[in-house]
From TrEMBL, chains A, B:
<keyword id="KW-0698">rRNA processing</keyword>
<dbReference type="GO" id="GO:0004525">
    <property type="term" value="F:ribonuclease III activity"/>
</dbReference>
<dbReference type="GO" id="GO:0003725">
    <property type="term" value="F:double-stranded RNA binding"/>
</dbReference>
<dbReference type="GO" id="GO:0010468">
    <property type="term" value="P:regulation of gene expression"/>
</dbReference>
<dbReference type="GO" id="GO:0006397">
    <property type="term" value="P:mRNA processing"/>
</dbReference>
<dbReference type="InterPro" id="IPR014720">
    <property type="entry name" value="dsRBD_dom"/>
</dbReference>
<feature type="active site">
    <location>
        <position position="52"/>
    </location>
</feature>
<keyword id="KW-0479">Metal-binding</keyword>
<feature type="binding site">
    <location>
        <position position="121"/>
    </location>
    <ligand>
        <name>Mg(2+)</name>
    </ligand>
</feature>
<feature type="binding site">
    <location>
        <position position="48"/>
    </location>
    <ligand>
        <name>Mg(2+)</name>
    </ligand>
</feature>
<feature type="active site">
    <location>
        <position position="124"/>
    </location>
</feature>
<feature type="binding site">
    <location>
        <position position="124"/>
    </location>
    <ligand>
        <name>Mg(2+)</name>
    </ligand>
</feature>
<dbReference type="GO" id="GO:0046872">
    <property type="term" value="F:metal ion binding"/>
</dbReference>
<dbReference type="InterPro" id="IPR000999">
    <property type="entry name" value="RNase_III_dom"/>
</dbReference>
<comment type="function">
    <text>Digests double-stranded RNA. Involved in the processing of primary rRNA transcript to yield the immediate precursors to the large and small rRNAs (23S and 16S). Processes some mRNAs, and tRNAs when they are encoded in the rRNA operon. Processes pre-crRNA and tracrRNA of type II CRISPR loci if present in the organism.</text>
</comment>
<dbReference type="GO" id="GO:0006364">
    <property type="term" value="P:rRNA processing"/>
</dbReference>
<comment type="similarity">
    <text>Belongs to the ribonuclease III family.</text>
</comment>
Length: 229, 229
Protein backbone atom coordinates (compact mmCIF):
# COMPACT_ATOMS: atom_id res chain seq x y z
CA UNK A 1 0.00 0.00 0.00
CA UNK A 2 0.96 3.62 -0.44
CA UNK A 3 3.50 4.90 2.12
CA UNK A 4 1.62 8.19 2.45
CA UNK A 5 -1.49 6.24 3.41
CA UNK A 6 0.41 4.15 5.95
CA UNK A 7 1.65 7.40 7.49
CA UNK A 8 -1.84 8.91 7.56
CA UNK A 9 -3.26 5.82 9.28
CA UNK A 10 -0.47 5.77 11.85
CA UNK A 11 -0.44 9.52 12.53
CA UNK A 12 -4.18 10.12 12.56
CA UNK A 13 -5.58 6.89 14.01
CA UNK A 14 -2.65 5.04 15.54
CA UNK A 15 -3.21 2.14 13.15
CA UNK A 16 -0.25 0.21 11.78
CA UNK A 17 -0.98 -2.97 9.86
CA UNK A 18 0.86 -6.18 10.68
CA UNK A 19 -0.33 -7.75 7.44
CA UNK A 20 -0.33 -5.04 4.77
CA UNK A 21 -1.89 -7.41 2.25
CA UNK A 22 -5.18 -7.07 4.12
CA UNK A 23 -5.10 -3.32 3.60
CA UNK A 24 -4.26 -3.84 -0.07
CA UNK A 25 -7.19 -6.21 -0.45
CA UNK A 26 -9.54 -3.78 1.31
CA UNK A 27 -8.68 -0.98 -1.12
CA UNK A 28 -8.66 -2.99 -4.36
CA UNK A 29 -11.64 -3.00 -6.68
CA UNK A 30 -12.40 -5.98 -8.94
CA UNK A 31 -11.67 -3.80 -12.00
CA UNK A 32 -8.03 -3.48 -10.87
CA UNK A 33 -7.72 -7.24 -10.33
CA UNK A 34 -9.10 -7.91 -13.81
CA UNK A 35 -6.40 -5.71 -15.34
CA UNK A 36 -3.65 -7.59 -13.48
CA UNK A 37 -4.29 -11.25 -14.32
CA UNK A 38 -1.86 -13.77 -12.89
CA UNK A 39 -1.02 -11.59 -9.88
CA UNK A 40 -3.50 -13.46 -7.67
CA UNK A 41 -4.79 -10.19 -6.27
CA UNK A 42 -7.92 -10.16 -4.17
CA UNK A 43 -10.56 -7.45 -4.17
CA UNK A 44 -12.38 -5.88 -1.27
CA UNK A 45 -15.81 -7.50 -1.35
CA UNK A 46 -15.30 -10.35 1.09
CA UNK A 47 -13.58 -8.12 3.64
CA UNK A 48 -16.38 -5.60 3.20
CA UNK A 49 -18.87 -8.35 4.11
CA UNK A 50 -17.08 -8.85 7.41
CA UNK A 51 -16.47 -5.13 8.03
CA UNK A 52 -20.18 -4.44 7.71
CA UNK A 53 -20.93 -6.75 10.66
CA UNK A 54 -17.99 -5.46 12.72
CA UNK A 55 -19.04 -1.83 12.32
CA UNK A 56 -22.66 -2.63 13.08
CA UNK A 57 -21.71 -4.22 16.38
CA UNK A 58 -19.35 -1.39 17.37
CA UNK A 59 -22.05 1.21 16.72
CA UNK A 60 -24.77 -0.89 18.37
CA UNK A 61 -22.79 -1.39 21.55
CA UNK A 62 -21.78 2.25 21.72
CA UNK A 63 -25.30 3.64 21.46
CA UNK A 64 -26.71 0.86 23.66
CA UNK A 65 -24.38 1.91 26.47
CA UNK A 66 -24.46 5.63 25.82
CA UNK A 67 -28.27 5.86 25.85
CA UNK A 68 -29.27 3.42 28.58
CA UNK A 69 -32.91 4.49 28.49
CA UNK A 70 -33.45 4.76 24.75
CA UNK A 71 -36.05 2.22 23.62
CA UNK A 72 -35.24 -0.38 20.96
CA UNK A 73 -37.12 1.40 18.20
CA UNK A 74 -35.04 4.53 18.55
CA UNK A 75 -31.79 2.62 18.95
CA UNK A 76 -32.64 0.93 15.67
CA UNK A 77 -33.36 4.24 13.94
CA UNK A 78 -30.19 5.83 15.25
CA UNK A 79 -28.12 2.84 14.17
CA UNK A 80 -29.65 3.01 10.72
CA UNK A 81 -28.58 6.67 10.50
CA UNK A 82 -25.03 5.78 11.46
CA UNK A 83 -24.90 2.77 9.15
CA UNK A 84 -25.87 4.15 5.78
CA UNK A 85 -24.27 4.99 2.48
CA UNK A 86 -24.34 8.74 2.94
CA UNK A 87 -22.66 8.58 6.33
CA UNK A 88 -20.09 6.04 5.18
CA UNK A 89 -19.06 7.96 2.10
CA UNK A 90 -18.45 11.16 4.02
CA UNK A 91 -16.47 9.27 6.68
CA UNK A 92 -14.40 7.73 3.87
CA UNK A 93 -13.72 11.12 2.27
CA UNK A 94 -12.78 12.63 5.63
CA UNK A 95 -10.18 9.87 6.04
CA UNK A 96 -8.94 10.39 2.44
CA UNK A 97 -9.83 6.82 1.55
CA UNK A 98 -10.82 8.02 -1.93
CA UNK A 99 -7.16 8.76 -2.73
CA UNK A 100 -5.95 5.23 -2.13
CA UNK A 101 -8.48 2.99 -3.87
CA UNK A 102 -6.95 0.79 -6.60
CA UNK A 103 -9.16 0.92 -9.69
CA UNK A 104 -8.99 -0.33 -13.27
CA UNK A 105 -8.57 2.28 -16.00
CA UNK A 106 -12.19 2.25 -17.09
CA UNK A 107 -13.44 2.82 -13.56
CA UNK A 108 -10.84 5.53 -13.03
CA UNK A 109 -12.02 7.34 -16.14
CA UNK A 110 -15.65 6.96 -15.00
CA UNK A 111 -14.66 8.76 -11.78
CA UNK A 112 -15.61 5.76 -9.63
CA UNK A 113 -13.16 7.08 -7.04
CA UNK A 114 -15.74 9.72 -6.08
CA UNK A 115 -18.79 7.44 -6.26
CA UNK A 116 -20.63 7.30 -2.93
CA UNK A 117 -21.46 3.62 -3.30
CA UNK A 118 -17.81 2.67 -3.79
CA UNK A 119 -16.63 4.87 -0.91
CA UNK A 120 -19.26 3.23 1.24
CA UNK A 121 -17.93 -0.23 0.34
CA UNK A 122 -14.34 0.85 0.98
CA UNK A 123 -15.22 2.30 4.38
CA UNK A 124 -16.64 -1.07 5.40
CA UNK A 125 -13.76 -3.05 3.93
CA UNK A 126 -11.29 -0.81 5.79
CA UNK A 127 -13.09 -1.62 9.06
CA UNK A 128 -12.99 -5.31 8.14
CA UNK A 129 -9.25 -5.19 7.40
CA UNK A 130 -8.44 -3.48 10.71
CA UNK A 131 -10.53 -6.07 12.54
CA UNK A 132 -8.89 -9.02 10.78
CA UNK A 133 -5.42 -7.60 11.39
CA UNK A 134 -5.82 -6.36 14.95
CA UNK A 135 -9.17 -7.29 16.46
CA UNK A 136 -11.94 -5.15 17.86
CA UNK A 137 -10.13 -2.58 20.01
CA UNK A 138 -8.44 -0.59 17.19
CA UNK A 139 -11.78 -0.48 15.35
CA UNK A 140 -13.41 0.98 18.46
CA UNK A 141 -10.62 3.55 18.83
CA UNK A 142 -11.00 4.52 15.17
CA UNK A 143 -14.75 4.99 15.65
CA UNK A 144 -14.17 6.99 18.84
CA UNK A 145 -12.05 9.36 16.82
CA UNK A 146 -13.94 9.55 13.52
CA UNK A 147 -17.57 8.53 14.11
CA UNK A 148 -18.80 8.95 17.66
CA UNK A 149 -17.95 12.68 18.02
CA UNK A 150 -20.40 13.25 15.17
CA UNK A 151 -23.20 12.20 17.49
CA UNK A 152 -22.46 15.18 19.73
CA UNK A 153 -22.02 17.37 16.67
CA UNK A 154 -25.65 16.64 15.81
CA UNK A 155 -25.03 14.69 12.58
CA UNK A 156 -27.72 12.16 13.36
CA UNK A 157 -30.13 14.42 15.28
CA UNK A 158 -32.89 14.21 12.74
CA UNK A 159 -33.13 10.50 13.43
CA UNK A 160 -33.83 11.01 17.10
CA UNK A 161 -37.50 11.14 17.71
CA UNK A 162 -37.63 13.30 20.83
CA UNK A 163 -41.42 13.35 20.96
CA UNK A 164 -41.64 9.59 21.14
CA UNK A 165 -38.87 9.47 23.70
CA UNK A 166 -40.62 12.08 25.86
CA UNK A 167 -43.87 10.15 25.70
CA UNK A 168 -42.12 7.00 26.87
CA UNK A 169 -40.06 8.66 29.59
CA UNK A 170 -42.86 10.81 31.00
CA UNK A 171 -45.22 7.87 31.31
CA UNK A 172 -42.92 5.44 33.07
CA UNK A 173 -45.01 5.74 36.25
CA UNK A 174 -48.41 5.95 34.61
CA UNK A 175 -50.28 7.97 32.00
CA UNK A 176 -49.86 11.75 31.82
CA UNK A 177 -51.23 14.39 29.43
CA UNK A 178 -48.57 15.66 27.02
CA UNK A 179 -49.69 18.61 24.93
CA UNK A 180 -48.04 20.86 22.36
CA UNK A 181 -49.15 24.52 22.11
CA UNK A 182 -48.41 26.97 19.31
CA UNK A 183 -47.14 30.09 21.13
CA UNK A 184 -46.17 32.22 18.15
CA UNK A 185 -45.59 32.23 14.42
CA UNK A 186 -44.02 34.98 12.36
CA UNK A 187 -41.85 35.75 9.32
CA UNK A 188 -42.66 35.72 5.59
CA UNK A 189 -44.87 32.99 4.11
CA UNK A 190 -41.99 31.00 2.59
CA UNK A 191 -39.82 31.32 5.70
CA UNK A 192 -42.28 31.04 8.53
CA UNK A 193 -40.99 30.51 12.06
CA UNK A 194 -42.94 28.63 14.73
CA UNK A 195 -42.60 28.68 18.49
CA UNK A 196 -44.18 25.78 20.34
CA UNK A 197 -44.27 24.71 23.97
CA UNK A 198 -44.86 21.30 25.47
CA UNK A 199 -46.78 20.82 28.70
CA UNK A 200 -47.06 17.72 30.83
CA UNK A 201 -50.22 17.62 32.95
CA UNK A 202 -50.56 21.36 32.32
CA UNK A 203 -47.05 22.39 33.39
CA UNK A 204 -44.64 23.75 30.74
CA UNK A 205 -41.50 21.63 30.34
CA UNK A 206 -39.94 23.00 27.16
CA UNK A 207 -40.14 25.44 24.26
CA UNK A 208 -38.83 24.96 20.74
CA UNK A 209 -38.67 26.98 17.53
CA UNK A 210 -38.33 25.91 13.91
CA UNK A 211 -39.37 26.53 10.32
CA UNK A 212 -41.96 23.78 10.60
CA UNK A 213 -44.33 22.92 13.43
CA UNK A 214 -42.81 19.44 13.52
CA UNK A 215 -39.30 20.77 14.10
CA UNK A 216 -40.50 23.22 16.75
CA UNK A 217 -42.28 20.37 18.57
CA UNK A 218 -39.17 18.19 18.42
CA UNK A 219 -37.18 21.09 19.91
CA UNK A 220 -39.67 21.51 22.73
CA UNK A 221 -39.64 17.76 23.45
CA UNK A 222 -35.83 17.70 23.43
CA UNK A 223 -35.78 20.47 26.04
CA UNK A 224 -38.41 18.73 28.16
CA UNK A 225 -36.39 15.50 28.12
CA UNK A 226 -33.77 17.17 30.32
CA UNK A 227 -36.17 16.76 33.23
CA UNK A 228 -36.20 12.99 32.74
CA UNK A 229 -32.48 12.24 32.59
CA UNK B 1 -34.05 -16.65 36.96
CA UNK B 2 -35.21 -20.24 37.25
CA UNK B 3 -32.68 -22.58 38.89
CA UNK B 4 -33.46 -25.30 36.34
CA UNK B 5 -32.55 -22.89 33.57
CA UNK B 6 -29.30 -21.89 35.29
CA UNK B 7 -28.44 -25.57 35.48
CA UNK B 8 -29.29 -26.17 31.83
CA UNK B 9 -27.10 -23.26 30.74
CA UNK B 10 -24.20 -24.40 32.90
CA UNK B 11 -24.45 -28.10 32.02
CA UNK B 12 -25.14 -27.77 28.32
CA UNK B 13 -23.19 -24.66 27.33
CA UNK B 14 -20.82 -23.91 30.20
CA UNK B 15 -22.50 -20.53 30.72
CA UNK B 16 -22.89 -19.16 34.23
CA UNK B 17 -24.06 -15.55 34.56
CA UNK B 18 -22.21 -13.13 36.80
CA UNK B 19 -25.12 -10.71 36.64
CA UNK B 20 -28.34 -12.75 36.67
CA UNK B 21 -30.43 -9.62 36.16
CA UNK B 22 -29.22 -9.53 32.54
CA UNK B 23 -30.61 -13.00 31.99
CA UNK B 24 -33.87 -11.97 33.68
CA UNK B 25 -34.12 -8.94 31.41
CA UNK B 26 -33.40 -11.02 28.31
CA UNK B 27 -36.27 -13.41 29.08
CA UNK B 28 -38.88 -10.86 30.18
CA UNK B 29 -41.57 -9.66 27.81
CA UNK B 30 -43.14 -6.20 28.15
CA UNK B 31 -46.48 -7.83 29.05
CA UNK B 32 -44.90 -9.23 32.23
CA UNK B 33 -43.42 -5.85 33.17
CA UNK B 34 -46.81 -4.19 32.72
CA UNK B 35 -48.38 -6.62 35.17
CA UNK B 36 -45.72 -5.88 37.79
CA UNK B 37 -45.74 -2.09 38.08
CA UNK B 38 -43.39 -0.57 40.62
CA UNK B 39 -40.90 -3.44 40.34
CA UNK B 40 -38.73 -1.51 37.88
CA UNK B 41 -38.37 -4.57 35.71
CA UNK B 42 -36.85 -4.26 32.27
CA UNK B 43 -37.93 -6.20 29.22
CA UNK B 44 -35.82 -7.83 26.56
CA UNK B 45 -36.03 -5.44 23.61
CA UNK B 46 -32.91 -3.35 24.16
CA UNK B 47 -30.75 -6.39 24.83
CA UNK B 48 -32.23 -8.02 21.74
CA UNK B 49 -31.08 -4.98 19.71
CA UNK B 50 -27.51 -5.62 20.83
CA UNK B 51 -27.72 -9.41 20.55
CA UNK B 52 -28.78 -9.11 16.92
CA UNK B 53 -25.52 -7.32 16.06
CA UNK B 54 -23.40 -9.68 18.18
CA UNK B 55 -24.83 -12.77 16.54
CA UNK B 56 -24.48 -11.31 13.06
CA UNK B 57 -20.77 -10.68 13.61
CA UNK B 58 -20.14 -14.13 15.10
CA UNK B 59 -21.83 -15.81 12.13
CA UNK B 60 -20.15 -13.49 9.60
CA UNK B 61 -16.68 -14.14 10.94
CA UNK B 62 -17.25 -17.86 11.14
CA UNK B 63 -18.39 -18.29 7.54
CA UNK B 64 -15.82 -15.74 6.30
CA UNK B 65 -13.02 -17.87 7.74
CA UNK B 66 -14.56 -21.24 7.04
CA UNK B 67 -15.19 -20.56 3.36
CA UNK B 68 -12.14 -18.54 2.30
CA UNK B 69 -13.05 -18.66 -1.38
CA UNK B 70 -16.79 -18.02 -1.17
CA UNK B 71 -17.66 -14.75 -2.91
CA UNK B 72 -19.44 -11.98 -1.04
CA UNK B 73 -22.83 -12.64 -2.65
CA UNK B 74 -22.91 -16.18 -1.37
CA UNK B 75 -21.56 -15.25 2.05
CA UNK B 76 -24.44 -12.77 2.28
CA UNK B 77 -27.00 -15.40 1.26
CA UNK B 78 -25.62 -17.93 3.70
CA UNK B 79 -25.61 -15.39 6.53
CA UNK B 80 -29.21 -14.49 5.74
CA UNK B 81 -30.12 -18.16 6.08
CA UNK B 82 -28.44 -18.38 9.46
CA UNK B 83 -29.90 -15.09 10.68
CA UNK B 84 -33.60 -15.49 10.16
CA UNK B 85 -36.72 -16.03 12.21
CA UNK B 86 -37.20 -19.66 11.30
CA UNK B 87 -33.64 -20.58 12.24
CA UNK B 88 -33.73 -18.56 15.46
CA UNK B 89 -36.99 -20.01 16.69
CA UNK B 90 -35.81 -23.57 16.22
CA UNK B 91 -32.51 -22.80 17.95
CA UNK B 92 -34.50 -21.29 20.82
CA UNK B 93 -36.73 -24.35 21.11
CA UNK B 94 -33.75 -26.69 21.02
CA UNK B 95 -32.28 -24.78 23.98
CA UNK B 96 -35.66 -24.87 25.82
CA UNK B 97 -35.78 -21.06 25.88
CA UNK B 98 -39.55 -21.28 25.40
CA UNK B 99 -39.90 -22.72 28.91
CA UNK B 100 -38.31 -19.77 30.66
CA UNK B 101 -39.84 -16.68 29.05
CA UNK B 102 -41.67 -14.41 31.52
CA UNK B 103 -45.01 -13.40 30.02
CA UNK B 104 -48.10 -11.53 31.16
CA UNK B 105 -51.28 -13.56 31.64
CA UNK B 106 -52.89 -12.44 28.40
CA UNK B 107 -49.86 -13.39 26.36
CA UNK B 108 -49.60 -16.70 28.20
CA UNK B 109 -53.19 -17.50 27.35
CA UNK B 110 -52.59 -16.50 23.72
CA UNK B 111 -49.79 -19.09 23.63
CA UNK B 112 -47.15 -16.44 22.89
CA UNK B 113 -44.59 -18.81 24.40
CA UNK B 114 -44.73 -20.87 21.22
CA UNK B 115 -44.83 -17.95 18.79
CA UNK B 116 -41.89 -18.03 16.36
CA UNK B 117 -41.47 -14.24 16.38
CA UNK B 118 -41.15 -14.13 20.18
CA UNK B 119 -38.75 -17.08 20.26
CA UNK B 120 -36.70 -15.31 17.62
CA UNK B 121 -36.51 -12.17 19.77
CA UNK B 122 -35.59 -14.19 22.86
CA UNK B 123 -32.83 -16.03 21.02
CA UNK B 124 -31.25 -12.69 20.13
CA UNK B 125 -31.72 -11.22 23.59
CA UNK B 126 -30.11 -14.31 25.11
CA UNK B 127 -27.07 -13.77 22.87
CA UNK B 128 -27.03 -10.10 23.89
CA UNK B 129 -27.17 -10.97 27.59
CA UNK B 130 -24.30 -13.47 27.35
CA UNK B 131 -22.24 -10.87 25.48
CA UNK B 132 -22.96 -8.11 28.01
CA UNK B 133 -22.18 -10.41 30.91
CA UNK B 134 -19.13 -12.21 29.56
CA UNK B 135 -17.99 -10.83 26.22
CA UNK B 136 -17.61 -12.46 22.84
CA UNK B 137 -15.89 -15.78 23.62
CA UNK B 138 -18.80 -17.50 25.42
CA UNK B 139 -21.11 -16.43 22.58
CA UNK B 140 -18.75 -18.03 20.08
CA UNK B 141 -18.57 -21.21 22.17
CA UNK B 142 -22.37 -21.32 22.36
CA UNK B 143 -22.62 -20.97 18.58
CA UNK B 144 -19.96 -23.63 18.07
CA UNK B 145 -22.12 -25.97 20.05
CA UNK B 146 -25.63 -25.05 18.88
CA UNK B 147 -25.40 -23.32 15.49
CA UNK B 148 -22.28 -24.13 13.50
CA UNK B 149 -22.68 -27.93 13.48
CA UNK B 150 -25.95 -27.33 11.62
CA UNK B 151 -23.92 -26.12 8.66
CA UNK B 152 -22.37 -29.57 8.33
CA UNK B 153 -25.75 -31.16 8.94
CA UNK B 154 -26.97 -29.41 5.78
CA UNK B 155 -29.51 -27.06 7.44
CA UNK B 156 -28.58 -24.17 5.17
CA UNK B 157 -27.67 -26.12 2.04
CA UNK B 158 -30.50 -24.76 -0.04
CA UNK B 159 -28.96 -21.30 0.29
CA UNK B 160 -25.69 -22.36 -1.25
CA UNK B 161 -25.70 -21.73 -4.93
CA UNK B 162 -23.23 -24.35 -6.10
CA UNK B 163 -23.68 -23.53 -9.77
CA UNK B 164 -22.67 -19.90 -9.27
CA UNK B 165 -19.77 -20.93 -7.09
CA UNK B 166 -18.56 -23.42 -9.71
CA UNK B 167 -18.77 -20.78 -12.42
CA UNK B 168 -16.65 -18.40 -10.36
CA UNK B 169 -14.10 -20.98 -9.25
CA UNK B 170 -13.66 -22.63 -12.62
CA UNK B 171 -13.07 -19.34 -14.39
CA UNK B 172 -10.45 -17.87 -12.04
CA UNK B 173 -7.79 -18.25 -14.74
CA UNK B 174 -9.93 -17.35 -17.72
CA UNK B 175 -13.18 -18.38 -19.39
CA UNK B 176 -14.14 -22.04 -19.70
CA UNK B 177 -17.24 -23.79 -21.07
CA UNK B 178 -19.44 -25.18 -18.30
CA UNK B 179 -22.30 -27.33 -19.56
CA UNK B 180 -25.03 -29.39 -17.93
CA UNK B 181 -26.27 -32.55 -19.65
CA UNK B 182 -29.40 -34.54 -18.88
CA UNK B 183 -28.17 -38.15 -18.62
CA UNK B 184 -31.38 -39.84 -17.55
CA UNK B 185 -34.87 -39.29 -16.26
CA UNK B 186 -37.24 -41.89 -14.87
CA UNK B 187 -39.99 -42.57 -12.34
CA UNK B 188 -43.70 -41.66 -12.40
CA UNK B 189 -44.87 -38.26 -13.69
CA UNK B 190 -45.43 -36.77 -10.22
CA UNK B 191 -42.19 -38.16 -8.81
CA UNK B 192 -39.75 -37.86 -11.68
CA UNK B 193 -36.06 -38.31 -11.04
CA UNK B 194 -33.36 -36.54 -13.08
CA UNK B 195 -29.70 -37.40 -13.48
CA UNK B 196 -27.51 -34.60 -14.79
CA UNK B 197 -23.78 -34.24 -15.37
CA UNK B 198 -21.65 -31.14 -15.57
CA UNK B 199 -18.73 -30.83 -17.95
CA UNK B 200 -16.00 -28.20 -18.03
CA UNK B 201 -14.44 -27.78 -21.45
CA UNK B 202 -15.95 -31.13 -22.39
CA UNK B 203 -14.61 -33.16 -19.44
CA UNK B 204 -17.10 -34.53 -16.88
CA UNK B 205 -16.54 -33.18 -13.36
CA UNK B 206 -19.68 -34.22 -11.51
CA UNK B 207 -23.05 -35.97 -11.61
CA UNK B 208 -26.13 -35.14 -9.57
CA UNK B 209 -29.64 -36.51 -9.16
CA UNK B 210 -32.82 -34.90 -7.92
CA UNK B 211 -36.57 -34.58 -8.32
CA UNK B 212 -36.09 -31.40 -10.31
CA UNK B 213 -33.53 -30.54 -12.98
CA UNK B 214 -32.42 -27.60 -10.85
CA UNK B 215 -31.63 -29.81 -7.85
CA UNK B 216 -29.83 -32.34 -10.01
CA UNK B 217 -27.69 -29.56 -11.52
CA UNK B 218 -26.86 -28.19 -8.08
CA UNK B 219 -25.80 -31.69 -7.02
CA UNK B 220 -23.56 -32.04 -10.06
CA UNK B 221 -22.01 -28.61 -9.43
CA UNK B 222 -21.43 -29.46 -5.76
CA UNK B 223 -19.54 -32.60 -6.79
CA UNK B 224 -17.50 -30.70 -9.38
CA UNK B 225 -16.49 -28.09 -6.79
CA UNK B 226 -14.36 -30.74 -5.05
CA UNK B 227 -11.83 -30.30 -7.85
CA UNK B 228 -11.46 -26.62 -7.02
CA UNK B 229 -10.91 -26.74 -3.27
Amino acid sequence: MDAAFDKELADNYGIKFHDESLLDEAFTQASFVNEHPGHHLRFYERIEFLGDAVYELVVSEYIFKRYPELPQGQLTRLRAAMVNEQSFSSFARECHFDRYIRLGHGEEKANARNRDSLLCDIFESFIGAVYLDQGMQPVIRFCEKVIFPKLDAGWFDEFFDHKTELQEKAQVNGPVAIEYHLLDENGPENHRRFKISVTIDGKEYGVGTGHSKKNAEQGAAKQALKYFK
